[in-house]
Amino acid sequence: MKSSRIIGTGSYAPEKILTNEDLSKLVDTSDEWITSRTGIKQRHIAREDEQTSDMAAEASKKALEMAGLTASDLDMIIVGTISGDMPMPACAAFVQAKLGAKCPAFDISAACAGSLFGLSIADQFIKTNAAKNILVLGVELLSRILNWEDRNTCVLFGDAAGAFILAPSEKESRGILSTHIHTDGDYTNILTIPGGGSISPMNEETLEKKLNFVHMNGREVYKFAVRSLTSVIKEGLDAHGFEKEDVDHVVPHQANIRIVDAVLKNLKIPKEKTVLNIDRYGNTSSASVPVTLDEAVRSGRIKEGDLVAMMAIGAGMSWGSAMIRW
Questions:
Q1: In the prediction, which pLDDT does 138 show?
Q2: Which of 57, 76, 149, 291 has the smallest CB count inside 10 Å?
Protein backbone atom coordinates (compact mmCIF):
# COMPACT_ATOMS: atom_id res chain seq x y z
CA MET A 1 0.00 0.00 0.00
CA LYS A 2 1.07 3.55 -0.66
CA SER A 3 1.72 5.83 2.28
CA SER A 4 0.17 9.29 2.43
CA ARG A 5 1.65 12.60 3.44
CA ILE A 6 0.43 16.10 4.20
CA ILE A 7 1.44 18.35 1.30
CA GLY A 8 -0.47 21.46 2.34
CA THR A 9 -1.83 23.09 5.49
CA GLY A 10 -4.00 26.13 6.02
CA SER A 11 -5.87 27.91 8.77
CA TYR A 12 -8.29 30.76 9.33
CA ALA A 13 -9.55 32.62 12.38
CA PRO A 14 -12.08 35.47 12.40
CA GLU A 15 -10.79 39.00 12.98
CA LYS A 16 -12.86 39.68 16.10
CA ILE A 17 -11.07 38.81 19.34
CA LEU A 18 -12.82 38.28 22.66
CA THR A 19 -10.43 38.65 25.59
CA ASN A 20 -10.79 37.33 29.12
CA GLU A 21 -11.39 40.89 30.26
CA ASP A 22 -14.25 41.16 27.76
CA LEU A 23 -15.74 37.95 29.15
CA SER A 24 -15.54 39.23 32.72
CA LYS A 25 -18.19 41.78 31.73
CA LEU A 26 -20.55 39.00 30.58
CA VAL A 27 -20.18 36.36 33.29
CA ASP A 28 -18.75 36.04 36.80
CA THR A 29 -15.14 35.42 35.88
CA SER A 30 -11.76 37.12 35.55
CA ASP A 31 -8.60 36.98 33.49
CA GLU A 32 -6.78 35.34 36.41
CA TRP A 33 -9.50 32.71 36.88
CA ILE A 34 -9.58 31.72 33.20
CA THR A 35 -5.82 31.84 32.62
CA SER A 36 -4.89 29.83 35.70
CA ARG A 37 -7.43 27.08 34.95
CA THR A 38 -7.19 26.87 31.16
CA GLY A 39 -4.20 28.79 29.79
CA ILE A 40 -6.55 30.81 27.55
CA LYS A 41 -6.15 34.59 27.21
CA GLN A 42 -8.38 35.25 24.19
CA ARG A 43 -10.43 33.57 21.46
CA HIS A 44 -11.67 34.49 17.95
CA ILE A 45 -15.38 35.04 17.29
CA ALA A 46 -17.03 34.91 13.86
CA ARG A 47 -18.90 37.85 12.36
CA GLU A 48 -22.68 37.66 12.27
CA ASP A 49 -22.59 37.20 8.49
CA GLU A 50 -19.81 34.58 8.64
CA GLN A 51 -20.67 30.89 8.35
CA THR A 52 -18.79 27.70 9.18
CA SER A 53 -18.23 26.90 5.51
CA ASP A 54 -16.84 30.41 4.91
CA MET A 55 -14.09 29.80 7.44
CA ALA A 56 -13.45 26.32 6.05
CA ALA A 57 -13.15 27.65 2.50
CA GLU A 58 -10.58 30.26 3.56
CA ALA A 59 -8.41 27.66 5.31
CA SER A 60 -8.78 25.35 2.30
CA LYS A 61 -7.55 27.99 -0.15
CA LYS A 62 -4.37 28.45 1.87
CA ALA A 63 -3.77 24.69 2.03
CA LEU A 64 -4.35 24.33 -1.72
CA GLU A 65 -1.91 27.13 -2.43
CA MET A 66 0.79 25.50 -0.29
CA ALA A 67 0.16 22.15 -2.00
CA GLY A 68 0.32 23.71 -5.47
CA LEU A 69 -3.15 22.39 -6.31
CA THR A 70 -6.50 23.80 -7.38
CA ALA A 71 -9.94 22.75 -6.21
CA SER A 72 -10.41 20.75 -9.42
CA ASP A 73 -7.51 18.51 -8.34
CA LEU A 74 -9.35 17.30 -5.25
CA ASP A 75 -10.72 13.77 -5.18
CA MET A 76 -12.50 14.11 -1.83
CA ILE A 77 -13.40 16.61 0.89
CA ILE A 78 -13.83 15.45 4.50
CA VAL A 79 -15.03 17.94 7.11
CA GLY A 80 -14.88 17.34 10.84
CA THR A 81 -17.43 19.59 12.54
CA ILE A 82 -20.32 19.67 15.01
CA SER A 83 -21.35 23.22 14.06
CA GLY A 84 -22.00 23.14 10.34
CA ASP A 85 -24.01 25.67 8.37
CA MET A 86 -27.15 23.51 8.75
CA PRO A 87 -28.06 20.13 10.27
CA MET A 88 -28.56 19.05 6.66
CA PRO A 89 -26.90 19.08 4.15
CA ALA A 90 -23.31 18.46 5.18
CA CYS A 91 -21.01 21.42 5.74
CA ALA A 92 -18.65 19.73 3.26
CA ALA A 93 -21.19 20.31 0.48
CA PHE A 94 -21.17 24.05 1.14
CA VAL A 95 -17.36 24.03 1.20
CA GLN A 96 -17.23 22.12 -2.06
CA ALA A 97 -19.49 24.67 -3.76
CA LYS A 98 -17.50 27.64 -2.43
CA LEU A 99 -14.24 26.15 -3.64
CA GLY A 100 -15.65 25.09 -7.01
CA ALA A 101 -14.60 21.47 -6.49
CA LYS A 102 -16.33 18.47 -8.06
CA CYS A 103 -15.74 15.47 -5.80
CA PRO A 104 -17.37 13.48 -2.99
CA ALA A 105 -17.74 15.66 0.11
CA PHE A 106 -19.02 14.60 3.52
CA ASP A 107 -18.93 15.43 7.24
CA ILE A 108 -17.80 13.36 10.19
CA SER A 109 -18.83 14.01 13.79
CA ALA A 110 -16.16 13.33 16.39
CA ALA A 111 -16.22 16.81 17.94
CA CYS A 112 -12.71 17.95 18.93
CA ALA A 113 -11.19 14.78 17.46
CA GLY A 114 -12.90 15.35 14.09
CA SER A 115 -9.85 16.44 12.11
CA LEU A 116 -7.78 13.46 13.31
CA PHE A 117 -10.60 11.05 12.48
CA GLY A 118 -10.79 12.70 9.05
CA LEU A 119 -7.03 12.36 8.65
CA SER A 120 -7.28 8.65 9.44
CA ILE A 121 -10.08 8.14 6.89
CA ALA A 122 -8.22 10.06 4.18
CA ASP A 123 -5.06 8.07 4.87
CA GLN A 124 -6.91 4.82 4.16
CA PHE A 125 -8.33 6.09 0.87
CA ILE A 126 -4.87 7.05 -0.34
CA LYS A 127 -3.19 3.88 0.88
CA THR A 128 -5.65 1.77 -1.09
CA ASN A 129 -5.32 3.91 -4.25
CA ALA A 130 -8.97 4.95 -4.02
CA ALA A 131 -8.06 8.65 -4.07
CA LYS A 132 -5.05 10.85 -4.71
CA ASN A 133 -5.64 14.34 -3.31
CA ILE A 134 -7.89 14.70 -0.27
CA LEU A 135 -8.82 17.86 1.63
CA VAL A 136 -9.41 17.27 5.34
CA LEU A 137 -10.89 20.06 7.43
CA GLY A 138 -11.58 20.73 11.07
CA VAL A 139 -13.86 23.72 11.47
CA GLU A 140 -16.10 25.02 14.23
CA LEU A 141 -18.29 28.05 14.75
CA LEU A 142 -18.88 27.30 18.41
CA SER A 143 -19.78 30.81 19.52
CA ARG A 144 -23.34 30.21 18.28
CA ILE A 145 -23.89 27.04 20.28
CA LEU A 146 -22.55 28.29 23.62
CA ASN A 147 -24.54 29.44 26.61
CA TRP A 148 -22.93 32.82 27.27
CA GLU A 149 -24.27 32.72 30.82
CA ASP A 150 -22.38 29.51 31.66
CA ARG A 151 -18.82 30.40 32.62
CA ASN A 152 -17.79 26.74 32.70
CA THR A 153 -18.16 26.49 28.93
CA CYS A 154 -18.30 29.94 27.32
CA VAL A 155 -14.77 30.86 28.47
CA LEU A 156 -13.25 27.84 26.75
CA PHE A 157 -14.20 27.90 23.09
CA GLY A 158 -13.46 29.93 19.97
CA ASP A 159 -14.14 29.89 16.23
CA ALA A 160 -11.59 28.79 13.60
CA ALA A 161 -10.85 26.46 10.68
CA GLY A 162 -7.84 24.33 9.82
CA ALA A 163 -7.03 22.25 6.75
CA PHE A 164 -4.76 19.40 5.66
CA ILE A 165 -4.25 18.21 2.10
CA LEU A 166 -3.13 14.59 1.81
CA ALA A 167 -1.51 13.01 -1.22
CA PRO A 168 0.54 9.86 -1.90
CA SER A 169 4.06 9.96 -0.49
CA GLU A 170 7.01 9.48 -2.79
CA LYS A 171 9.00 7.95 0.08
CA GLU A 172 7.69 5.18 2.31
CA SER A 173 9.70 6.57 5.21
CA ARG A 174 7.96 9.96 4.96
CA GLY A 175 4.38 10.89 5.69
CA ILE A 176 1.68 9.46 7.92
CA LEU A 177 3.21 6.43 9.61
CA SER A 178 0.01 5.45 11.43
CA THR A 179 -3.22 6.74 12.94
CA HIS A 180 -4.97 5.38 16.03
CA ILE A 181 -8.61 6.26 16.73
CA HIS A 182 -11.00 5.16 19.48
CA THR A 183 -14.48 5.82 20.87
CA ASP A 184 -16.09 4.87 24.19
CA GLY A 185 -19.85 5.46 24.03
CA ASP A 186 -20.24 4.79 27.75
CA TYR A 187 -19.13 8.39 28.26
CA THR A 188 -21.57 10.14 25.92
CA ASN A 189 -23.09 12.05 28.84
CA ILE A 190 -20.04 14.09 29.94
CA LEU A 191 -19.82 16.37 26.89
CA THR A 192 -22.99 16.96 24.89
CA ILE A 193 -25.36 19.24 23.02
CA PRO A 194 -28.46 17.47 24.36
CA GLY A 195 -31.14 19.30 22.40
CA GLY A 196 -32.04 19.15 18.73
CA GLY A 197 -31.84 15.42 18.13
CA SER A 198 -34.31 12.57 18.43
CA ILE A 199 -34.01 12.44 22.24
CA SER A 200 -34.93 16.10 22.76
CA PRO A 201 -36.28 17.54 19.48
CA MET A 202 -36.07 21.29 19.08
CA ASN A 203 -39.09 22.94 20.68
CA GLU A 204 -39.92 25.68 23.17
CA GLU A 205 -38.96 23.51 26.15
CA THR A 206 -35.60 22.60 24.61
CA LEU A 207 -34.81 26.26 24.02
CA GLU A 208 -36.04 27.33 27.45
CA LYS A 209 -33.75 24.80 29.14
CA LYS A 210 -30.88 25.82 26.84
CA LEU A 211 -30.41 22.23 25.71
CA ASN A 212 -29.31 23.47 22.29
CA PHE A 213 -26.00 24.62 23.80
CA VAL A 214 -22.82 22.81 24.84
CA HIS A 215 -23.04 21.07 28.24
CA MET A 216 -19.94 19.69 29.91
CA ASN A 217 -18.86 17.88 33.06
CA GLY A 218 -15.42 19.44 33.17
CA ARG A 219 -13.98 17.26 35.92
CA GLU A 220 -14.90 14.01 34.16
CA VAL A 221 -13.73 15.27 30.77
CA TYR A 222 -10.36 16.19 32.29
CA LYS A 223 -9.83 12.77 33.86
CA PHE A 224 -10.88 10.91 30.72
CA ALA A 225 -8.77 13.13 28.47
CA VAL A 226 -5.55 12.74 30.43
CA ARG A 227 -5.91 8.98 30.64
CA SER A 228 -6.90 8.47 27.00
CA LEU A 229 -4.43 10.86 25.39
CA THR A 230 -1.54 9.40 27.36
CA SER A 231 -2.54 5.93 26.22
CA VAL A 232 -3.06 6.80 22.54
CA ILE A 233 0.33 8.52 22.20
CA LYS A 234 1.96 5.47 23.76
CA GLU A 235 0.04 3.35 21.26
CA GLY A 236 1.47 5.37 18.39
CA LEU A 237 5.02 5.15 19.72
CA ASP A 238 4.78 1.42 20.40
CA ALA A 239 3.44 0.75 16.89
CA HIS A 240 6.83 1.74 15.48
CA GLY A 241 9.18 0.93 18.33
CA PHE A 242 9.75 4.62 19.02
CA GLU A 243 10.85 6.00 22.36
CA LYS A 244 9.63 9.29 23.79
CA GLU A 245 13.03 10.81 22.98
CA ASP A 246 12.39 10.17 19.27
CA VAL A 247 9.50 12.65 19.18
CA ASP A 248 10.51 16.06 17.84
CA HIS A 249 7.15 17.80 18.15
CA VAL A 250 3.83 17.13 19.87
CA VAL A 251 0.85 18.84 18.21
CA PRO A 252 -1.99 18.50 20.72
CA HIS A 253 -5.62 19.47 20.68
CA GLN A 254 -5.62 22.80 22.52
CA ALA A 255 -8.40 22.02 24.97
CA ASN A 256 -6.91 23.05 28.30
CA ILE A 257 -3.30 23.66 29.27
CA ARG A 258 -3.76 21.51 32.37
CA ILE A 259 -4.71 18.52 30.22
CA VAL A 260 -1.70 19.02 27.95
CA ASP A 261 0.66 19.44 30.90
CA ALA A 262 -0.65 16.29 32.61
CA VAL A 263 -0.28 14.19 29.45
CA LEU A 264 3.26 15.43 28.85
CA LYS A 265 4.15 14.65 32.46
CA ASN A 266 2.78 11.12 32.11
CA LEU A 267 4.74 10.60 28.89
CA LYS A 268 7.87 12.32 30.24
CA ILE A 269 8.06 14.50 27.12
CA PRO A 270 9.47 18.02 27.66
CA LYS A 271 6.97 20.83 27.23
CA GLU A 272 9.44 22.56 24.91
CA LYS A 273 8.61 19.94 22.27
CA THR A 274 4.93 20.87 22.31
CA VAL A 275 3.34 23.34 19.89
CA LEU A 276 0.95 25.55 21.86
CA ASN A 277 -1.39 28.36 20.86
CA ILE A 278 -4.25 27.88 23.33
CA ASP A 279 -3.60 31.31 24.82
CA ARG A 280 -4.53 32.96 21.49
CA TYR A 281 -7.31 30.69 20.20
CA GLY A 282 -8.88 28.85 23.11
CA ASN A 283 -10.46 25.49 22.33
CA THR A 284 -11.47 25.51 18.65
CA SER A 285 -12.58 21.87 18.77
CA SER A 286 -11.94 20.03 15.49
CA ALA A 287 -10.01 23.03 14.09
CA SER A 288 -7.47 22.92 16.90
CA VAL A 289 -4.97 20.35 15.58
CA PRO A 290 -4.83 21.55 11.94
CA VAL A 291 -4.60 25.21 13.00
CA THR A 292 -1.74 24.38 15.36
CA LEU A 293 0.05 22.27 12.75
CA ASP A 294 -0.33 24.99 10.13
CA GLU A 295 1.29 27.57 12.40
CA ALA A 296 4.18 25.22 13.18
CA VAL A 297 4.76 24.41 9.50
CA ARG A 298 4.57 28.00 8.27
CA SER A 299 6.88 29.26 11.01
CA GLY A 300 9.50 26.70 10.01
CA ARG A 301 9.40 24.98 13.37
CA ILE A 302 8.56 21.61 11.81
CA LYS A 303 11.24 20.53 9.36
CA GLU A 304 11.70 17.61 6.96
CA GLY A 305 12.52 14.41 8.78
CA ASP A 306 10.97 15.50 12.09
CA LEU A 307 8.78 13.03 13.97
CA VAL A 308 5.45 14.67 14.80
CA ALA A 309 2.94 13.19 17.25
CA MET A 310 -0.60 14.60 17.03
CA MET A 311 -3.36 13.93 19.55
CA ALA A 312 -6.97 14.99 20.12
CA ILE A 313 -10.02 14.04 22.15
CA GLY A 314 -13.66 15.06 21.83
CA ALA A 315 -17.24 14.20 22.71
CA GLY A 316 -18.28 10.62 22.31
CA MET A 317 -15.87 10.23 23.94
CA SER A 318 -13.67 9.93 20.85
CA TRP A 319 -9.91 10.30 20.74
CA GLY A 320 -6.96 9.60 18.49
CA SER A 321 -3.33 10.12 17.58
CA ALA A 322 -1.25 10.27 14.42
CA MET A 323 2.46 9.61 13.99
CA ILE A 324 3.98 11.54 11.10
CA ARG A 325 7.50 11.62 9.68
CA TRP A 326 7.56 15.06 8.09
A1: 98
A2: 149
